Amino acid sequence: KIWEWKKETGNIILGQLKKLGCGLDWDRVAFTMDKSRSKSVKKAFICLFDKGLIYRGKKLVNWCLKCGTALSDIEVEYKNEKRSLWYIKYPLKSSDEYLVVATTRPETVFGDVAVAVNPEDERYKKLIGKIVKLPLVNREIKVIPDYIVDKFFGTGAVKITPAHDAIDNQIARRNNLGFIEIINTSGKMMNVPLRYQNLTVEEAKIEVVEDLKAMGFLIKVEDYICSLGRCYRCYTKIEPLMSEQWFLSVGELSKKAIDATNHGRIFFHPKSWEKSYVLWLENLKDWCISRQIWWGHRIPVYYCVDKKGNKTNCKPVASLDKPTKCCYCSSKNFTQDEDVLDTWFSSALWPISVFDWGENENNEDLKYFYPTSVLATGHEILYLWVARMVQFGLEFMNNIPYNDVLIHGIVRDKQGKKMSKSLGNVVDPIVVIEQYGTDALRFALSKIAVQGRDMQISEKSFLVSRNFANKIWNASRFIVINLKNVDKLNDDIHPIELADQWIITEFIDFISKTVSAYESYNVDIVARNLYDFFWKKYCDWYIELSKIRISSTDLNVRRQVLSILSYILKSILKLMSPIMPFITSEIWEILSKNTPIKHVGGNCTANNPKTIIDNLLEGNFNALLCGYKCSIEKMNFIQDIIIRIRTLRNEMNISPEIQLGALFSVLNNDKRELIKANENYVKRLAKISTIKFEINIVRPKNSAFIIGDGIEIFLPLEGLIDINKEKARLIKEIVLAKQEIKATSFKLQNEKFVQRAPKSEIEKVKMRFSEAKLKIEKINENLKIFG
Fold it and tell me: How far apart are CA 75 and CA 77, in angstroms?
């Protein structure tokens, strides 16, 4: 049934990955429980077993009562929870005095083997070595010293129950104390007085507290916040128990993994995760690798049994297949260990098992692909998976599994909450794809994927990204349509206008920064660079300015500007393809079929992005670039003029369809000549019909006035707008803005609002207040235009 379920859900998962645009090798699909991976797991276990690194022993483990299995330390999730702290009298032997012990687990009093105090605690120095009697059972135990005891916890004296507490277990081992097990794997009490036998832990706690109180042993109870461990699967409270389990000795494995990191063989992105990774390995205890569940890789250990099925005293054997004969007693009867391996054991082998290491450790795929380049993963499995893959890679391949580890964050909702079905804030990526498209989803996630930080997403994120995808499509369509009107493109690009020089300079800088971001795995920077360059520079400015020449009757002029447009578009598609594979591939195919662009065939992901800048700098751009440096400053000057005129038109509510005349007063000769040389840019983008240059201009009546950067610009408005109506409209806007200031100011002065409202809401109110003030300032400036 499980294999049927795996086939059904596995295909769903693979289908989702394809919809998400994951560029995987679909001919190499593998599953952790399939035949080849099973061989790898068995082989790894046997190798470690034969080396003496895997052993079976009875130790304190984390036990999940609901799952009915042991868990490793890292599979336990800890959370602070409200509990109680009980203060209990432990009478001193042959004395009327008593020691007060504080505990969060009174029900485990029957498993106590000592009371521990800090040897530097002056209150208890005289009691070290003394005998106290356990409440309820009157058993005698010693007061022992141990530096791990916190003098400030409770009374500074703690009960030691080594069979049911990790710290107590350490103390007991250091002091050669015994172990008394009082809780079984079902969570029931055992080895306790008959009154408490077979009660659950919680039932026993109630009864024990009542009896302690009735017999005068309970002094007081306090509320207490303590860290409780819960199962990472079902969130049931963990019960520490002594259990016979299989363990992997990790000392040497951890040392090799630490050395690989310290010697610069593995790099973390961001580097801040390296320290915690190494620290975890340094403090790693032997790994409990056996599980008492029914789905997983069964431990390949066989026991020799007699004819009645009882285990003999012969040593167990680790084997790929069931042995045919016992090498100790010649018996032919065997039984396999019933436990299965921790799922992370097989996962740790993935970099090699996926290439069939268990069947042939020297196969060509493994030689070619191992070690791999980069692992991209979430920080929540850094220790569960990443560290263990490194340990196993070094153990079995004598080499690291990958050079770089990219740690990404967890996707959260717009309030910063972790996505959860119970909270109802889960975003289904397939639904997002249906609404906004795969490329929009991928771009939205890429744009916020800051290394190591969790990501907050909302519907607005996908809407912005969909608009960006539309912009890419429409801009590309415009270029493709116009490429059909030229017979060929120039092999060498010769920028002749300021706009050409400016876009190429910005383009080379953009490529350099974007390639650098890719190489350092800063995908968020890549996405933002793509967005800013393509939309704000390439589309909003260069394409708009290129329309002047595209409409030219001169074929050479059209060919020249289209050569630059198409070259930059192709390069951008290559840089975009890892993030937005579908739209870039589609556009690439259209370019290859319908345009005269050379060498556009193949896949747009064929080249490493770094080759784009290499090709540029090896070509004629490198020589020309030196002369283009000043083009950015010049173009910024022209753009500033256009933006100022556009802003004024918008504020004055002048339709874009209306062409304005403009008077320019520019004292600086260089600036004046720069504007004259590029006045066609200003005319087209600022909707200006004519430009006149004069030195001393008398401001025309009812004209708008712009000043800055050593220039004065006058836009005569006589006859273009109704002056009185415009004045009335602006005055009305001021009244509304003042009302907004009053409302927002009232909210910000309200202490209850400031204290209780979400920070984001307070920021929104502050923003409305600032915008209203700025609006009044702008309107007053415009009113001055009319005198």
Answer: 6
CB within 8 Å of 172: residues ≥ 6 apart: 113, 114, 160, 162, 178, 179
Q: Quick one: angle between helices 429-436 and 2-19, nearest 10?
A: 30
Confidence of residue 607 (pLDDT cuts 50, 70, 90): low
pLDDT above 90: residue 286: yes
Strand ranges of the sheet holding 372-378, from the earlier edge strand across to the other edge: 267-269, 402-408, 372-378
| Pairing between β-strand 54-64 and β-strand 69-71 as defined by DSSP bridges | antiparallel
**8 A C-beta contact, residue 257 and residue 394:** yes
Q: What would the mean pLDDT of 100-113 be, rounded to a whole number?
A: 96
Token pair listed for 501: 């020089």
pTM confidence score: 0.80
Q: What is the mean pLDDT of residues 77-100?
A: 93
Q: What is the mean pLDDT of the chain?
A: 89
Distance CA 426, CA 457 (A): 11
Helical H segments across 330-371, by residue range: 343-348, 350-353, 364-369
What letters, b where the CB count within 10 A reaches 16 and e where it falls short, cover 681-719? bbbebbbbeebeeeeebeeeebbbbbeeeebbbbbbbee
> Could you report the per-residue pLDDT of 141-187, keeping only the tens digit for each?
999 999 999 999 999 999 999 999 999 999 999 999 999 999 999 99
CA-CA distances (angstroms) from residue 770 to 648, 763, 783? Answer: 20, 11, 20
> How would residue 598 be classed by pLDDT, with cut points 50, 70 and 90?
low
Report whether 681 contacts 499 (CB < 8 A): yes
* Joined tokens for residue 149: 């005891």
Helix H or strand E encompassing 203: helix 201-214
Contact 142, 33 (CB under 8 A): no
